[in-house]
C-alpha cells in the first residue's frame, strides 16, 4: 500500500532506545543520574570560573560558553525522554519536534565552532605569548562568542526549515529517542536529495574545515612546546592543551562517525548509541575532563569549595 502524505502532522512517535518495556525503569534511573550530574558539573565549572579572579582569562571564558552549551544540549533531549519513560507516552508534538531539532543542531554546530576557536586561543597563548593580550582581547572574546552562537543559530535554522517543509508519510514513528535530522528524513514522502546534500556539505565543510584548523594549530603548538627549555614550562603548556584535545577527539570522533559513516544493516541502532555519546555523555564528561586534567581549574575548584565550607560554618 502506498504511503499517504501528511504534510503537517500534529505529532510524531519516538521509538526510544530499546523495544523492551522492562528496560524503561533502569534506563530512567541511569539517565536521571546522568542528567543531574551533568547539569551540576557544568554549573560548577561556570560558578568556579566566575568566582575565581585568576580564571578570568579568555580560555576559561570560552570554557563557560562550552558548559552553557553542554547544559542546553543535554536539557534538549533527556527531560523529554525521562517524561516519556514516566508517562509511557512516546509522542512529541510537531512543533515540539521542530524546536528540539533546532536547539540540538544549534548547540552542536556552535560547539564545533567554539572548540575550533579554543584551539586558536591555545595556539596564540603558546606560540605567541608576548602578543597574546593584544590578539585575544576582551572585545575579541565577546565578538567571537556572539559570532559562533549566531553562526550556529543560522545554520540550524536552515537545516530545521528544510526538514520541516517536507511532506511526511502516514508512518510517523521516529526510530530514535529524540528528533534528529537523519531519522526524520526517512519519514519523508518527498525527495530529500536537497536536505541530504545540504547536511553532507555542512558536515564536511564545517567538520573538515574546523578539524583541519585544529590539527594545524596543534602542529605549531607541539613544535613550540618542544622548543621550551624548562621542563615545568613544557608541563604547564601541555596541561592547558590536554583537556581541550581530549574533548575535541571524543566530540569530533563520534560526530564524524555518526553523520559521515555509511549505514550498517548489522548495527541498526548504532545511530542511537552514538547520539547517547555526543548528546548525553559528552556533556557529562566535559566538566570532569576540564576539572581533573587541568591543574588551575582543579586548584580553583578546591579553593572555592573550601571557602564556601568556611563561610557556611561561620
Which CATH class? Answer: Mainly Alpha
Q: What's the CATH H-level homologous superfamily?
A: Rhodopsin 7-helix transmembrane proteins
What is the average of the pLDDT values?
Answer: 85
Order of helices and strands: EEHHEHHHEEHHHHH
The largest sheet is: 3 strands, mixed
What sort of overall outline do the alpha carbons produce when their principal axes are compared?
globular
Number of helices: 10
- Placed side by side, the strands forming the largest sheet appear as 3-2-5
* Head-to-tail CA distance between termini: 75 Å
Please give the radius of gyration in angstroms. 21 Å
Low-confidence stretches: none
Compute the number of structural domains.
Answer: 1
Strand segment tally: 5
Q: How much strand content do the residues show?
A: under 5%
The name of the CATH topology is: Rhopdopsin 7-helix transmembrane proteins
Amount of helix: over 70%
Shape-level CATH architecture: Up-down Bundle
Category by helix and strand content: mainly alpha
List keywords for this structure.
314 residues; mainly alpha; Rhopdopsin 7-helix transmembrane proteins; three-stranded mixed β-sheet; two-stranded antiparallel ribbon; 10 helices; 4% strand; globular
What does this structure look like?
The structure is a single chain. The chain is mostly helical and 314 residues long. The protein has one domain (7-301): Rhopdopsin 7-helix transmembrane proteins (Up-down Bundle), CATH 1.20.1070.10. The chain has ten helices and five strands; from the N terminus they run E-E-H-H-E-H-H-H-E-E-H-H-H-H-H. Strands 3-2-5 form a three-stranded mixed beta sheet. Strands 1-4 form a two-stranded antiparallel ribbon. Helix 1 (24-51) packs across helix 10. The longest helix has 34 residues, at 94-127. It is globular. The mean pLDDT is 85.
Amino acid at each position: 500500500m502506498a504511503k499517504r502524505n501528511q504534510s503537517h502532522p500534529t505529532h510524531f512517535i519516538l521509538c526510544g532506545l530499546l523495544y523492551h518495556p522492562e528496560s524503561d525503569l533502569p534506563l530512567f534511573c541511569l539517565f536521571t543520574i546522568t542528567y543531574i550530574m551533568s547539569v551540576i558539573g557544568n554549573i560548577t565549572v561556570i560558578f568556579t570560573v566566575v568566582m575565581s579572579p585568576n580564571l578570568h582569562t579568555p580560555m576559561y571564558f570560552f570554557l563557560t560558553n562550552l558548559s552553557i552549551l553542554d547544559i542546553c544540549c543535554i536539557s534538549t533531549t533527556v527531560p523529554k525522554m525521562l517524561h516519556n519513560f514516566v508517562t509511557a507516552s512516546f509522542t512529541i508534538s510537531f512543533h515540539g519536534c521542530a524546536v528540539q531539532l533546532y536547539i540540538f543542531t544549534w548547540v552542536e554546530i556552535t560547539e564545533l565552532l567554539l572548540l575550533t576557536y579554543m584551539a586558536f586561543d591555545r595556539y596564540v597563548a603558546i606560540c605567541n605569548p608576548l602578543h597574546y593580550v593584544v590578539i585575544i582581547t576582551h572585545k575579541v572574546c565577546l565578538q567571537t562568542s556572539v559570532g559562533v552562537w549566531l553562526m550556529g543559530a543560522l545554520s540550524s535554522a536552515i537545516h530545521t526549515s528544510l526538514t520541516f517543509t517536507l511532506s511526511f508519510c502516514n508512518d510517523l514513528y521516529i526510530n530514535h529517542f529524540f528528533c534528529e535530522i537523519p531519522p526524520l528524513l526517512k519519514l519523508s514522502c518527498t525527495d530529500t536529495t536537497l536536505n541530504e546534500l545540504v547536511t553532507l556539505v555542512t558536515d564536511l565543510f564545517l567538520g573538515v574545515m574546523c578539524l583541519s584548523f585544529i590539527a594545524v594549530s596543534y602542529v605549531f603548538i607541539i613544535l613550540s612546546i618542544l622548543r621550551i627549555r624548562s621542563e615545568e614550562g613544557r608541563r604547564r603548556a601541555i596541561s592547558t592543551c590536554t583537556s581541550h584535545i581530549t574533548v575535541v577527539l571524543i566530540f569530533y570522533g563520534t560526530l564524524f562517525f555518526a553523520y559521515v559513516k555509511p549505514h550498517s544493516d548489522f548495527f541498526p541502532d548504532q545511530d542511537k548509541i552514538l547520539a547517547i555519546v555526543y548528546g548525553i555523555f559528552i556533556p557529562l564528561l566535559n566538566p570532569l575532563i576540564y576539572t581533573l586534567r587541568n591543574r588551575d581549574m582543579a586548584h580553583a575548584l578546591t579553593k572555592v569549595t573550601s571557602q564556601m565550607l568556611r563561610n557556611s560554618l561561620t
